[in-house]
């Protein structure tokens, strides 16, 4: 079958990793897969979308992303409608369109596409605040259309039980029982085959053998609360000896898009925070590392710090677990489903990151124990094979039932 993935901005985030992995699973199953997107920067994307693995068609990038710094959601809706129209006016229509993030395209796609799949990472209306009356008035029709159009999909996936509960609370007109939890996975074959760079090469600095590397991977966005990682590093002084603390470093790596004002501002804020807390020499900031660099720092780090509260699911903890690293994450959202407290890592509150970090920094054998347990848990519950089998069987069943 011909499956087209329709995604608004094919960059390097968790949502993008999910659709790329879903596309890989379908391609390996023998389906023809391609992408249609409204923006794709070869310098800010996953390898599979630029190395010829998939055909990527960019449409509507000339349409505005905002109007005088406002109306981002409205413009995203317009761009996705344009992309949907491109798909339906092609000579050869795909059998299935798999879309995510923006649901406004679904009623247009259903005019001539046999099956439309929607993956709900999180209701879009909850990703922005509506503090002013004007903003609430602006969002009112957008929120209504998001709910109605989401419900038109032939199949709706959510990324976690947490997101399913949020879906149920948000979309009260829709029956959440018809959604299916499809946990994301990672392209483990890439992890197994990629060349691992030494950290000295990536960070351009030499370290002694006793160095303990803490790692945070997330986009440079304020909602990710990356400042927690820097504050936890500074607070470690309370729990470690001077010698132990001298050997601890933090790597801050994440998606950075210079077109996004928040990315630029928050990156500079974090640099300022490190300076204010006196840990500038112990923090390394990496912006949009390549896929190979990302895997390399995961393999070479000792502990992953995952700071976002109420994260919808979170791909990075899975990546860390696959390479046998313990994870310390905020005790909320999706990580409560991917991390077993006191077994594969720690689920903590904001105030206790540094306390739990100190335990793992001091105890290498515990780090190895948690890491081994994390890899086993990943293989048992989140393997790429399990993800692929669930995705393919569900999509094919939907297609068959719709076209009987």
Automatic annotation (TrEMBL):
Signal peptide: none annotated. It is found in: Endoplasmic reticulum membrane. Residues 12-189 form the Glycosyltransferase subfamily 4-like N-terminal domain. The keyword Transferase applies. The chain crosses the membrane at residues 71-89, 96-119. Residues 206-376 form the Glycosyl transferase family domain. It comes from the Eukaryota. GO terms for molecular function: GDP-Man:Man(1)GlcNAc(2)-PP-Dol alpha-1,3-mannosyltransferase activity; GDP-Man:Man(2)GlcNAc(2)-PP-Dol alpha-1,6-mannosyltransferase activity. Gene3D superfamilies: Glycogen Phosphorylase B. GO terms for cellular component: endoplasmic reticulum membrane. It catalyses: an alpha-D-Man-(1->3)-beta-D-Man-(1->4)-beta-D-GlcNAc-(1->4)-alpha-D-GlcNAc-diphospho-di-trans,poly-cis-dolichol + GDP-alpha-D-mannose = an alpha-D-Man-(1->3)-[alpha-D-Man-(1->6)]-beta-D-Man-(1->4)-beta-D-GlcNAc-(1->4)-alpha-D-GlcNAc-diphospho-di-trans,poly-cis-dolichol + GDP + H(+); a beta-D-Man-(1->4)-beta-D-GlcNAc-(1->4)-alpha-D-GlcNAc-diphospho-di-trans,poly-cis-dolichol + GDP-alpha-D-mannose = an alpha-D-Man-(1->3)-beta-D-Man-(1->4)-beta-D-GlcNAc-(1->4)-alpha-D-GlcNAc-diphospho-di-trans,poly-cis-dolichol + GDP + H(+). Pathway: Protein modification; protein glycosylation. It is a single-pass membrane protein. Its EC number is 2.4.1.132, 2.4.1.257. Belongs to the glycosyltransferase group 1 family. PANTHER family: ALPHA-1,3/1,6-MANNOSYLTRANSFERASE ALG2, ALPHA-1,3_1,6-MANNOSYLTRANSFERASE ALG2. Mannosylates Man(2)GlcNAc(2)-dolichol diphosphate and Man(1)GlcNAc(2)-dolichol diphosphate to form Man(3)GlcNAc(2)-dolichol diphosphate. This is Alpha-1,3/1,6-mannosyltransferase ALG2. It comes from Ceratosolen solmsi marchali. The gene is LOC105367225.
């Amino acid at each position: 079958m011909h499956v087209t993935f329709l995604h608004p901005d094919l960059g390097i985030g968790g949502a993008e990793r999910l659709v790329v992995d879903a596309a890989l699973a379908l391609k390996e199953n023998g389906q023809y897969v391609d992408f249609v997107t409204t923006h794709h920067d070869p310098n800010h994307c996953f390898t599979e979308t630029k190395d010829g693995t998939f055909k990527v068609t960019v449409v509507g990038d000339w349409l505005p992303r905002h109007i005088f710094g406002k109306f981002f959601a409205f413009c995203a809706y317009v761009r996705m409608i344009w992309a949907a129209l491109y798909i339906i006016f092609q000579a050869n229509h795909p059998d299935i369109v798999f879309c995510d993030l923006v649901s406004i395209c679904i009623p247009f796609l259903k005019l001539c596409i046999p099956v439309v799949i929607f993956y709900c990472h999180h209701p879009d209306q909850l990703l922005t605040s509506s503090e002013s009356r004007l903003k609430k008035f602006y969002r009112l029709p957008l929120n209504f259309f998001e709910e109605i159009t989401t419900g038109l999909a032939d199949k709706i996936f959510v990324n976690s039980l947490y997101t399913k509960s949020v879906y149920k609370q948000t979309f009260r007109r829709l029956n959440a029982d018809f959604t299916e939890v499809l946990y994301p996975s990672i392209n483990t074959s890439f992890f197994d085959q990629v060349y691992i760079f030494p950290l000295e090469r990536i960070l351009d600095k030499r370290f002694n053998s006793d160095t303990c590397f803490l790692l945070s991977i997330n986009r440079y966005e304020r909602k990710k609360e990356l400042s927690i990682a820097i504050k936890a590093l500074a607070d470690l002084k309370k729990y470690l000896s001077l010698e132990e603390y001298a050997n601890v470093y933090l790597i801050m790596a994440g998606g950075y898009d210079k077109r996004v004002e928040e990315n630029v501002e928050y990156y500079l804020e974090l640099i300022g925070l490190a300076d204010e807390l006196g840990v500038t020499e112990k923090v390394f900031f990496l912006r949009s590392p390549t896929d190979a660099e990302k895997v390399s720092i995961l393999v070479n780090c000792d502990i992953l710090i995952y700071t976002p509260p109420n994260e919808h699911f979170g791909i990075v903890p899975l990546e860390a677990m696959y390479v046998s690293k313990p994870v310390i994450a905020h005790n909320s959202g999706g990580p409560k489903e991917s991390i077993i407290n006191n077994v594969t890592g720690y689920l903590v509150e904001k105030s206790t990151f540094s306390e739990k970090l100190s335990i793992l920094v001091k105890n290498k054998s515990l780090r190895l124990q948690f890491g081994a347990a994390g890899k086993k848990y990943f293989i048992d519950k989140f393997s790429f094979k399990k993800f692929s089998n669930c995705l393919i069987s569900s999509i094919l069943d939907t297609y068959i039932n719709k076209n009987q």
